[in-house]
Amino acid sequence: MRKIQMVDLQSQYTFIRSQVEAGMNEVLSTAQFINGPAVKSFQSNLESYLGVKHVIPCANGTDALQVAMMGLGLEPGDEVITADFTFAATVEVIALLGLTPVLVDVDPNSFNIDPNAIVRAITPKTKAIVPVHLFGQVADMDAIMAIAEKHNLYVIEDNAQGIGATHTGSNGNTTKTGGIGHVGSTSFFPSKNLGCYGDGGAIFTNDDDLAHTLRGIVNHGMYERYHHDVVGVNSRLDSLQAVVLNEKLKLLDYYNERRKWAAIRYSHLLSGHDNIITPKVIGNCDSHVFHQYTLRLIDSDRDGLVQHLQNQGIPCGVYYPIPLHAQKAYQSGKYDQENFAVTNQLVKEVISLPMHSELDEEQIETVCQAVLDFLG
User: Fold this and answer.
1) pLDDT band at 332 (very low <50, low <70, confident <90, very high)
2) Can you list the alpha helix ranges (DSSP code H) found in the chain?
């Protein structure tokens, strides 16, 4: 049996090695390392894949979120509502821009932001909502967009874990995540469903004026060399990374289908145990692309299982062990622990098993047997 890895980037690379090396050699021979043809090609291809009018590549997913907020003209003191149960980058950029992060609880089944909690958190200072498509599952975008429209708020999708997922609205229309809100962002960190071989990110929007603003922001605020029309940053996608992303984009649906297959196999083998809650897919089979396969362990020793798996040479992850409202950087006297009942429970229960497009049946059975052996 091949070694079980949390993410098997080496096997994935082997399959596309010749195409990636050819594309990289072309970049090296032309020396167009920044905003070269490979970047423009990837931008166009991703626009077509997502069905959005504008993709603005940038240096990483955190920059993508920051630039999106800068482009919307949010001002210091404006409140931005987001989920308590997610990676810190989502709230990090809110605080970095002098905005006020407002953390709210999540749904226990999807792990995504709870629309009811959003409504309770809205004040006259609220200007935006940042739903995170956590672990690859689409957030409740019908409810979120309705709330945003009612209260005249922006919606900024954090699509770092959900690229390729499809939202089917109540009207029956389908939309790729990232293209539902006013603006979307993603990360191309190597472990993502669509990942490069370093850092990378992108911003998405269907708003022509916003896209123009965003393109200036990522390039020092310039539309013409040495003419700085807006306050900007230096955040551009390298041509070498665009080569990798172009090749992987061709296979993204395949990668996601392989992840779904692995998730189905995991759930089939684990769902009969009384102490395990397997991931729930909210919506149809295209609404979850399983960036992570995350279990909830009920009345069990989660940390003991982590150690047991590690002793067996099986990697696993706990995403995320400390809620954002309890992190030193984001603690606030305004938060009431009773408002985070779900998040406070999840951080004690969740464990993520190996998940990637190269998993095979033997590896999945080995992981599941180790879990079941520990739980008894």
Assistant:
1) confident
2) 9-30, 37-50, 61-71, 89-96, 115-121, 141-151, 208-217, 239-249, 252-270, 302-311, 341-349, 361-375
Q: Read off the tokens for 354.
A: 């190996």
Domains and CATH numbers, the chain: 9-105+112-249 (3.40.640.10), 253-375 (3.90.1150.10)
Whole-number Å distance between alpha carbons of 158 and 359: 26
Spatial separation of the C-alpha atoms in residues 48 and 358, rounded to whole Å: 26
Tens-place pLDDT, residues 122-144: 999 999 999 999 999 999 999 99
Give the number of other CB atoms < 10 A from CB of residue 261: 15
Q: How far is CA 328 from the centre of its chain?
A: 23
294 token code pair: 């995350």
Alpha carbon distance 231, 74 (integer Å): 13
**Phi, psi at 284, each rounded to 5°:** -90, -175
Q: Alpha-carbon distance 94 to 82, whole Å?
A: 10
Residue 360 pLDDT: 97
CB atoms within 10 A of CB 328: 6
In whole angstroms, what is the distance from residue 243 CA to residue 26 CA? 10
Residues 346, 296: Cα–Cα separation, whole Å? 7
Question: On the CB side of 349, how many CA atoms lie within 13 Å of its CA?
Answer: 20
Q: How many whole angstroms separate alpha carbon 111 and alpha carbon 294?
A: 10
> What is the per-residue pLDDT across 161-211, written as a single tens digit (0 to 9) for each?
999 999 999 999 999 999 999 999 999 999 999 999 999 999 999 999 999
- The 10 Å CB-count burial string (b at 16+, else e) for 93-121 is bbeebebbbbbbbbbbebbbbbbebbeeb
Strand order in the sheet with 293-297: 276-277, 293-297, 350-353
